[in-house]
Design goal:
heterodimer; A: about 150 residues; alpha+beta; Alpha-D-Glucose-1,6-Bisphosphate, Chain A, domain 4; B: about 775 residues; Aldehyde Oxidoreductase, domain 4; Aldehyde Oxidoreductase, domain 3; seven-stranded mixed β-sheet; about 30% helix
Chain lengths: ~150, ~775
């Protein structure tokens, strides 16, 4: 099952502060919804364990995350892959970060994900709604931590 | 209808099934009832990816799970020479556990052995597999382009598996070109799954003699023994296969699955019994599916409705491995039966099969090797032709039937039909359903804009594989066998190479013995499924048991009768030539008062045999001279709700001709079961994959089985045209209702929608498909 999302978020913080935050694996990892554990491997790689529940399919996902920051362009790309309970998720996301005023930053992001296994089959009907909810939660956490 | 079989009359009696008290009281003995001291449980790690390279498998965390004893991967098996398993068709092989890459979602990747089922599942969850996704091929038409090569392990660097054809291609093309009327339609017989209520499973252990004791849900235990010997190198005498009571099979329990091989390897490696029972999801997603044939059907006809030629070109989706359980010489099974009940002067059928990133299979779901696909193609095709010609569907069929006097009939595609009286069967069905009145009712309803449909299917199928000159599985000829022993008291035991999964062999086999020998069927025990005791046979599937093993039983009983005649002569104090078998006992010719029963003879065979060899037993291996050709007329009457698309099956009549009927009650039960499955296929069942290769029907909320609430009321009747070459004239019936009914249901729905201009809807005919078809038809008229 293919999922594709994009959006723009206004963050009430300066560009440098936002950039430092989103390129810190520990901080980014802790913004994942329902995160249980984050283990940072190096400045651009971390492992995360998250609780997942889509319809009747529930369990823990182990995710491997790679951050690919381009400081010159203020662009951050991210690759997430992993899964659990016979399901798998592969996701790529990217964000262009720009100053939108004093102490305000715009984060224009997009992401594509492919879900496989029971989470796509059984959870298919509610997966889209669930994914949008999780994205919303993730950005709400980012805003809260930065403001 | 008589329900009491006696020692004077057993065949044709509707005696209650001998096995039923056991099942009704919950005393059946199934694979998961088995437990042995020290038994371990096996759980399989399965791939969430339909196509991916395996970068690494890390078992360290799994080994730390309490209770986990061992984990094996494809690499371990490959090192032991057990990485690949030949498929039953014999021309491909299949990974036991994935080696290098996975080719379908839910493919077996690693095996975890643990002290409990729970620990095994936890261990499987803890195995870390690093996958690199590869492009997915989710349909045979994409596969055909060879843009993504799925099986680099094969010598042929293409996704194309085989091209098979039968018939006269050029003559068919010429006849079609010169036919004044022609129809052409693509019909997809969707991928479905037999979904037996009991999934597959096994228990394996090596006994104190080092002998493999292998209890397994198998429809063909003898073939398993031979195949395991060939694959593992274990001498065949050191393998004992036991198939216990089976909770349904429908073809799903014919192939050998990776879980079985892993259980045996685990038992050998760890030295303890290993049990593997698959989950419902595992059964639906990884074991043998059925059908998935895309058929382009073309029929030519004269203006007055005489068929002139048939051409069917099929694109088949075989999944990741060519595991279609078909006889060696028949990669597309016996699809050549596609000319059905009709006297086509010329025909040509071809099948091209392709690999895709879907589960492997292509087994018969209550069907004799692609006969259901063929029957659906011709019976839908005839209805489309009737619509094109503006002819009544029954009249068109009648006009083109193979006539009673034409049997044995050589079909254009190489079969010799044994017997039948299609017109008689059709006439009985039309009379019984009240066809004329239904047509009148339909005309009135159409005038009011109501949608009512009548669907007919006058199918002929082919079962009883099969004659050794044509049919083999892995080289083993498709005969079957029976061994009968009559004990001193006149009770006895019969063993065969087949294996009942609900067909009622414990009753019907006893009836054949009883009829042939004048004994009480209640005292004839039937035993199947144990390779140490039963004679070798190819098993139960494809409606072959009665045509092959049923015949072997009759022939073995006749051997017993020949021996018994000698003892009878001794008891009657006459020469053997003066003894005749008459009225279920031996009598002195011309002296009806001087008789001995088989019971008398049985006792004498052990107590007073004179110079004759003691004992009373015989074995017969039956190599059928031909297949059998059961047939029937099915009529469905449906009402379609114009606003919601809901289809209500108001009536369904099945008139079957399966030759001599051994037990009418068992036959009716078989027909009810098969019709219910045919109904499910027509309206409910499909194994769907999305474009990324996700299996979307992984459980019974998404893959539907009809309950008594959805299932229509079944009306049945029969005609009896015995098979001339079968010892008792029986043809087999298990699959007929599944083979014949899908077309009747679909024909009825399309007949209901035909005033709107709807020509075809692929199965399953769900209400949203019907609703959409109605909407589109109405839109296009505006």
């Amino acid at each position: 099952m293919n999922l594709e999302y994009r959006g723009t978020e206004q963050i009430p913080a300066g560009l440098d502060k936002v950039w430092t935050f989103v390129t810190d694996p520990e901080k980014v990892g802790r913004c994942f919804p329902d995160v249980i554990d984050v283990v940072v491997q190096d400045p651009t790689h971390f492992d995360a364990v998250v609780q997942v529940g889509v319809g009747p399919v529930r369990g823990k996902f182990k995710l491997k995350v790679e951050l690919m920051p381009d400081a010159a362009k203020h662009r951050l790309d991210m690759k997430v892959s992993g899964g659990g309970f016979g399901s798998a998720v592969d996701m790529t996301a990217g964000a262009d970060i720009a100053e939108s005023g004093p102490g305000a930053t715009t984060l224009a992001w997009s992401g594509q994900a492919v879900a496989r296994g029971p989470i796509a089959a059984v959870g298919g009907r509610v997966l889209d709604a669930q994914a949008q909810k999780l994205i919303g939660q993730a950005f709400a956490t980012v805003k809260e931590r930065l403001s | 209808m008589s329900t009491q079989a006696t020692d004077r009359h057993a065949i044709g009696v509707a005696m209650k099934r001998k096995e039923d008290p056991r099942f009704i009281q919950g005393k059946g003995h199934y694979i998961d009832d088995l437990a042995f001291p020290g038994m371990l449980y096996l759980a399989l790690v399965r791939s969430p990816y339909p196509h991916a390279e395996i970068k690494n498998i890390d078992i360290a965390d799994a080994m730390k799970v309490p209770g986990v004893k061992a984990v094996i991967t494809g690499k371990d098996l490959d090192a032991a020479g057990l990485g690949w398993l030949p498929t039953f068709h014999g021309f491909d092989k299949q990974m036991v556990l994935a080696i290098g890459k996975v080719l379908f979602q839910y493919q077996e990747v690693a095996a975890v052995f643990a002290e409990s089922r729970e620990a095994a599942a936890d261990g499987a969850e803890a195995v870390q597999v690093d996958y690199a996704p590869l492009p997915v091929v989710a349909d045979p038409f994409t596969s055909k382009t060879d843009k993504v090569l799925l099986r680099p392990d094969r010598e042929q660097k293409t996704n194309h598996i085989f091209h098979w054809e039968v018939g006269d291609k050029d003559a068919t093309a010429r006849a079609l070109a010169s036919s004044p009327r022609r129809i052409k339609e693509r019909l997809w017989f969707q991928r479905c799954h037999p979904a037996p209520l009991e999934p597959c499973g096994c228990v394996a252990y090596f006994d104190t003699m080092g002998r493999l004791q292998f209890h397994v849900t198998s429809q063909a235990p003898h073939v398993y023994r031979t195949a395991l010997a060939l694959v593992t190198g274990i001498p065949e005498d050191k393998i004992h296969v036991i198939s216990p009571d089976l909770g349904g099979g429908f073809g799903n329990k014919v192939p050998i699955y990776p879980g079985y091989v892993c259980a045996i390897v685990g038992a050998l490696k760890i030295g303890r019994p290993v049990k593997w029972i698959e989950t419902r999801t595992e059964n639906l997603t990884s074991t043998g599916f059925a059908r998935d044939y895309h058929m382009d059907v073309e029929i030519g006809a004269t203006e007055d409705g005489r068929v002139t030629a048939l051409h069917v070109a099929t694109t088949a989706d075989h999944g990741a491995f060519d595991a279609a359980a078909d006889p060696s010489k028949y990669p597309a099974g016996i699809f050549g039966i596609v000319t059905g009940s009709y006297a086509f002067p010329v025909a040509h059928a071809e099948v091209d099969a392709y690999f895709t990133n879907k589960a492997p299979g292509g087994i018969a779901y209550r069907c004799s090797f692609r006969v259901t696909e063929a029957s659906y193609a011709i019976e839908r095709g005839m209805d489309i032709l009737a619509d094109e010609l503006g002819m009544d569907a029954a009249e068109l069929r009648s006009k083109n039937f193979v006539k009673k006097e034409q049997f044995p009939y050589p079909s254009a595609l190489g079969f010799t039909y044994d017997s039948g009286d299609y017109q008689k069967t059709l006439n009985l069905a039309l009379e019984k359903i009240g066809y004329k009145q239904l047509l009148e009712e339909q005309a009135e309803k159409r005038a009011r804009g109501e949608l009512m449909g009548i669907g007919i299917s006058t199918f002929t199928e082919v079962v009883g594989a099969g004659p050794s000159k044509h049919f083999d599985i892995l080289g083993i000829k498709m005969f079957d066998s029976a061994e009968i022993r009559i004990h001193p008291t006149g009770a006895g035991i019969v063993r065969t190479g087949t294996k009942s999964q609900g067909q009622g062999h414990e009753t019907t086999w006893a009836q054949i013995v009883a009829e042939e020998l004048g004994l009480d069927p209640q005292t004839i025990m039937v035993e199947e499924g144990d390779t140490d005791t039963a004679p070798y046979g190819l098993g139960t599937y494809a409606s072959r048991s009665t045509p092959t093993a049923g015949a072997a039983i009759a022939m073995a009983a006749r051997r017993i009768r020949e021996k018994a005649r000698k003892i009878a002569a001794h008891l009657l104090e006459v020469g053997e030539a003066d003894v005749e078998w008459k009225d279920y006992k031996f009598q002195v010719k011309g002296v009806p008062s001087k008789t001995v029963t088989m019971k008398d003879v049985a006792f004498a065979a052990y107590t007073n045999m004179a110079q004759n060899e003691p004992g009373l037993e015989a074995t017969f291996y039956y190599d059928p001279p031909n297949m059998t050709y059961p047939n029937g007329t099915y009529v469905a009457v449906v009402d379609v709700d114009r606003d919601t698309g809901e289809v209500k099956v108001r009536r369904f009549l099945a008139v079957d001709d399966c030759g001599t009927i051994i037990n009418p009650l068992v036959v009716e039960g078989q027909i009810h079961g098969g019709l219910t499955e045919g109904f499910a296929i027509a309206f409910m069942q499909e194994v769907q994959y999305d474009a990324e290769g996700n299996n979307l029907n992984t459980n019974f909320t998404d893959y539907l089985l009809p309950t008594s609430l959805e299932t229509p009321h079944w009306e049945t009747d029969k005609t009896v045209t015995p098979s001339p070459h079968h010892p008792i004239g029986a043809k087999g019936v298990g699959e007929s209702p599944n083979v014949g009914s899908p077309a009747a249901f679909v024909n009825a729905v399309i007949d209901a929608l035909s005033p709107l201009g709807v020509r075809h809807i692929d199965m399953p005919i769900t209400r949203d498909k019907v609703w959409r078809a109605i909407q589109e038809a109405e839109q296009s008229k505006k």
